[in-house]
Amino acid sequence: MCGIIGVISKKEVKNFRSDYFDPLSHALDQMEYRGPDNKGLWTENDICLGHRRLSIIDLSADGNQPFQSTCERYIIVFNGEIYNYQELRTDLKKLGHTFRTESDTEVIIAAYIQYGADFCKVLRGMFAMVIYDRKEKEVVFARDRLGKKPLFLFENEELIVFSSEIKFFHAFKNIPLEINEESLLNFLSLQYIPGPATIYKNVRQISPATIYRYELNKDQGETLSYWSMFDFVGERKDIPEIEEIDSLLAESIKYRLVANVDIGLLLSGGIDSSLLACYMHELAGKKVKAFNVSFAEKSIDESFYAQKVATSLDLDLITLRLDDITVENFSSSIYHADQPMGDSAIIPTYLISKSISQHVKVVLSGEGADELFHGYDHYRYEKYYYQLGKLPFEGARAFMEIISGLGIHKFDRIRNKLQSIGNFKKDTGVSRWTSILSPELSRNYLNTAKQNSGNYESQFDSFLKDFEKKSGKLESSLMLDLLTWLPDDLLVKTDRMMMACSVEARTPFLDHQLVEEVLKSSSHFNQYLFQSKNYLRKLLKKKLPPSVAELISNRPKQGFETPKLQWLNSSLSELSTFLFSEENLKNNPYLDAAKVNDLWQDVQKQKPGTNFRLIWNIFCFLEWHRQHESKFGFTK
User: Are residues 52 and 165 located together in one domain of the fold?
Assistant: First the structure.
C-alpha cells in the first residue's frame, strides 16, 4: 500500500522543474504517511513519477518504486496489492518472462507486456496504478474493479497530473482548483461525493474497473472498461450452495494473508468480523492478533462479543481504548478524508488506525459484507415495501398508518420515511430508506447550485436501469449500494483513515470472484424477508462453538453510531461556534448564510424536526473549506 503522484507533460513545459518537479517532490514529503518506508522519483523529458512506499511484499529495496522494467521501456508507480501475483509470475515465466525481484509490482509490468490493455483482467487485488511506455510514449492509468484504491486526475491541453489524494493538487500553482457546486450539492444530500466527479471542477476520478490510456504522440486518450458487475447479474438461476460461498471466502482470505509482515484483524464481534476470525484461525498458521475497540458508552460497546469470539478461537485480542474526540483529531480526520466527508465514523476509524499502527502494518476488515449480503436495515425495508405489492408511496403510507394504529410498531420507521420519499423526483433505489436528502432540500442552503444542475438522483436512476436489464426492480435496488455508497463512502473512509496512519486494510468480502458469484444468483435477494446475511450466519454456525455461534449470529445489527450532536455541543463546541459564526458564514461564498444560521439556531435549541444530519454535513464542509482556503498547508 502506497501513495502515488506524477506529472505527464503533453507538450514542452516552460519552467518544468520549478512549476512541477519541485512541488511534486514537496508533495511526496507531505504524503509520507501513505508510505513511510521509501520515497522514490523518476523523471525524463518533462515527465515525473513519484511514489511513497509502505513495504508489505518483498521488503527489500528491489521493491521500491517508481519501478523500471528490465528492458527499461516501462516505468510503473503502483498503489495496492496483487494477491495472485505468485501464480501470475509462474504463468508468465512459462511464457518467457524473467524476474529479478520478488515483488508484485514487477509481475504487473510483465502482465501488461503480455496482455496489453487486457492486463487488469488477470489481476486479483486492489490497485491504482500508472504505467508509462517510453518507446510508444503512452501512459496508462488503471483502477481496481470495486474502487478500493483512489486515483485522481487533472488534465488540460498541456499536461496530466495524477495523485492518490486530491489535496496534493494544491502543491502545483498552475492547477486551478475551483469548487464544483454540483458535487457540493450531492455532498450535503449524501454525506459523500459520488464519482467520477470530485469536489473540484477540473479534477476527476478514474472510475472503478476502468483504464484511461493516453497516447502522447497522437495527443489523444481513450477510456476502457475491463469489468462490469452488470455483466454478471442474473446469469445464474439457482442459488449457490453454502459450500460454494465457503470455498470462495476461504480462497479470498488465503490470498489476503500473503505478506512479509504481520497481519491483524479488526474484530467487532459482529457476524462479518467473527467469520473472518474463523477463517484466519484456520488459515494463518499462527496465532491471530485481533483488535477490538472498547467504548465507555455501553450501548455502542461490542467488546463483550469480541471477547467471546476471541476466547473460543484462542486469538490474541488487543482491546483498544480510544482517545476522546478533540478538535485536533476531528480536523485531522477531515484533512485525511481528502474530499468533504460527512460520515462521522471517520473520526473513530482514524483513532482506531492510530492505535493499530503501533502493532501491525496490515489488517483484514469486513467492509462489503453488508452491501453484498444485505446486512443493513434498509435492505429489509425495501423488501417489505416490495412485498406490499409496490404500492404507490401514498397508498403504502396509508397502509402503514393503519398498521401503526393497530398497535403494530415494527414498521413505524418505514411509515415515517415514506413521508419524505415523495420529494425524490427519480428512483433512488434502496438508498431511499437511508438518511439521504433530496437535492431540493439541500439546494435551499446553497447560494450557487442552480435548479437545473445535475445531481445524484439521475446517476442512481441510470445505475438502476442498467441493473434492471438483467434483474427485477427489487434485486436492482438492493445492488445499488455496490456502485455508490460502497466505493465513494465506506471504502474512502477505510483507505484514507488507515493510510493516514500507515496501515493497509484488506477487504476479503470484496474479492471480485466472490462478488461475481453472488451477483450471478441475484434471485436469492427475494428470499428470507425477515433476515439478512443468511449465508454468513450459516457459515458462522459451522465454524464456532454452538453457544458462541448462536450469540453472534442472532445479535441485532449494531452500526458504528456516533453522538454527533453531543460532539457539536461539547468537545467540538469551540470549533462549531467559530465555523457557524455570522462572520465565517458570510465569508463562505457557497452557503446561504442566513438559512444555515437559522438551522444552526434550531440545533442549539434542539428544536423538534431539525435536520441534524444536514447540519453535521455543513459543519464538515465548513471545516474542509477552511483547510481548502489554506491550500491544505501548501503555499503557492
Answer: yes
Dihedral of CA 460/512/97/62: which sign? positive
CATH of the domain at 214: 3.60.20.10
Cell numbers representing residue 116 in the block: 496489453
- Same domain for 26 and 144, yes or no, is yes
Distance between CA 36 and CA 501 in Å, rounded? 10
pLDDT score at 529: 45
Beta strand ranges found along 470-582 (DSSP E): 504-506
b/e map 111-131, b = 16+ CB within 10 Å: bbbbeeeebbebbbbbbbbbb
Query: 152 in helix, strand or coil?
Result: strand
Q: Provide the domain count of the chain.
A: 2
Same domain, 279 and 341: yes
Average pLDDT, the chain: 90
Query: CA nearest 103: which of 160, 61, 49?
Result: 61
**270 and 314, same domain (yes or no):** yes
The whole-angstrom separation of Cα 528 and Cα 540 is 17
Confidence band (pLDDT; 50, 70, 90) for 414?
low
Contact status, residue 446 vs residue 429, Cβ threshold 8 Å: no
Pairing verdict, β 289-294 and 316-321: parallel
Residues 139 and 185 in one domain: yes
Residue 145, domain member (yes or no): yes
pTM (2 d.p.)? 0.93
DSSP 383-401: HHHHHTTS--HHHHHHHHH
Task: Answer yes or no: is pLDDT of 384 > 80.
Answer: no
What pLDDT does 389 receive? Answer: 52
How many degrees, rounded to 5, is the angle at CA 423 between CA 427 and CA 183? 70
251 shares a domain with 138: no
Neighbour order of strands in the sheet with 47-53? 38-44, 47-53, 2-9, 159-163, 152-155, 203-205
CB 85 within 8 A of CB 104: yes
Tell me the three cell numbers of residue 219.
495527443
Query: Is residue 463 over pLDDT 70?
Result: yes
CATH number, domain of 504, equals 3.40.50.620
| 273 band by pLDDT with thresholds 50, 70 and 90 | very high
Which strand (E) or helix (H) includes residue 586?
helix 582-586
Is 66 within 8 Å of 77 (Cβ atoms)?
A: yes
Which residues, 6 or more positions from 6, have their beta carbon under 8 angstroms from its beta carbon?
Answer: 24, 47, 48, 49, 50, 77, 130, 161, 162, 163
| Residues 217-238, mean pLDDT to the nearest whole number | 92
C-alpha distance from residue 348 to each of 165, 295, 320, 495, 627 (Å): 21, 10, 11, 14, 21
Which class for 322: exposed (0-12), middle (13-18), buried (19 or more C-beta within 10 A)?
middle
Domain encompassing residue 286 = 233-373+486-553
Residues 252 and 153 in one domain: no
Q: Which amino acid is at 416?
A: N
Residues 104 and 165 in one domain: yes
Q: How far apart are CA 636 and CA 631, in angstroms?
A: 9
Per-residue pLDDT band for 246 (boundaries 50, 70, 90) equals very high
Q: If you ran DSSP here, which 8-state letter would residue 591 be given? A: B
Q: Answer whether 35's CB lies under 8 Å from 65's CB.
A: no
